[in-house]
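S.,

As promised, the flavin mononucleotide run. Input:
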Amino acid sequence: MLTMQTLCPHPIIQAPMAGGATTPELVAAVSNAGGLGSLAAPLLAPLAIIEQAEHIRRLTDKPFAINLFVQTRPQIDFAALESAKLLLQGVCRELGWDSLPTPTRWCEDFEAQLDALITARPAVASFTFDVLHGSQMQRLHDAGILVVGTATNLPEAIVWQAMGADAVCLQGVEAGGHRGTFIGAQKDSSLGISALLAACRPHLHIPVIAAGGIMDGKAITDALAAGADMVQMGSAFLTTRESGINQAYKQRLLEARSDTTRQTRAFSGRIARGLDNHFMQVMAEVADKVPAYPIQNALTGAIRAAAAKDNRTEFMSLWVGQGVAASRDLPVAELMAVLVAEMQA
Ligand SMILES: Cc1cc2nc3c(=O)[nH]c(=O)nc-3n(C[C@H](O)[C@H](O)[C@H](O)COP(=O)(O)O)c2cc1C
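Predicted complex:
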C-alpha cells in the first residue's frame, strides 16, 4: 500500500497551480523525475479532469496528485453584483470597455468534480479553501486515494488530522497564489513557513508538507530539518519549460530580481500573493470591498483573459511566491536534478 512517505523517491511535491500552469506534461515530468506531480483541477470541468488524468497516465506510470478547491456554489445578489462591477469601472475604462460582462458561470460544481477525481483515481487528492465532510473523506479512502489537506494555522491543521487526512500541507505566508485559510480571517493567518512548522509540528502525528517560498535544495533541507516530511513547491515550477503559463507572465517572473510580490484580494475575493502590478495598485483602496471568492474571481475573469491574450501583464494575476527572484528557466528534469544535487551538497 502506498503511503505519503513511499510515494516518490524525493520529498518534493510540485504544487497544484490552477490557471493553466500544471499541464499534464509538467505533472508527468515531475513524477518521472522522482517527485510527486500535482494536477490543479479547481477550474476544470469534471470531464476535463478525467481527460487530463488519462493524458498524464500516457506520459508516466508513476503516482501523481489531483487538487481541488473545496467550495459551494455562491448565492448571487444581483444588486450587490452591480456595486461590485462599479469597483472595477476604472479598470474597464483603462481597457476601453463600456461595461463589464456578467459571468454566466461562477465556479465548477464541487461534488461533480469530486466524482470525477474519484473516477480518475490518482494516488493522492489534495484540497484547499475548506475541509472535506467525513463521507467525502471516506469515499476517497475507499477508492485507495491518499488525502492531503491545506492548513494556514494550527486549528486548521488539527481539523484535517482529526478528519483522517493522510498528510497536511502547511502553507506559509510566503506562498504564491491563494491562501487556503478556512478558520479565522485570511489576513490573520500570516505565519511564515518556519514559524508555522514550529507551531504545528508538535501537535501533528500525520506527515507534514511544508509550502511557501521554497525555491532551492537548501530551503528543502532546512524545511525537512525543521520537521517537515516533504515540501510542496509551486513558484519554482512556474518557470519550467513544461509550465503552461502565458509567456509574458513567465518572462516577468524570470526578470524579478527581488521579492516584488504582495497580497491582494482584488482579483478574486480571496487573499492571494502575486507580482505587484497596475491592477493591484488601482484596486488597492477598494480591495477589502470586493465580493468573496468565487464571485470576484468570475467577475475579473474577462479582464484577466483579455489581458493575457494581449500580453498586458499589468492587468493579469501574476501569482507567485516571495521566492520569485530565485526562479529558474529549466526543463523539469533538469530542475529536479539541480534540487536533488543542492539537497545533497
Ligand atoms: C500560480 C499559482 C497557482 C496556485 N494554485 C493553487 C491551486 O490550484 N490549488 C492549491 O492547493 N494551491 C495552489 N497554489 C498554492 C500552492 O499550493 C502552494 O501553496 C504555493 O505554490 C507554495 O508557495 P511557493 O509558490 O512559494 O512555492 C498556487 C500557487 C501558485 C503560485
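The first helix runs from residue 24 to 32. Residues 27 and 37 are 4 Å apart (CA to CA).

- D.
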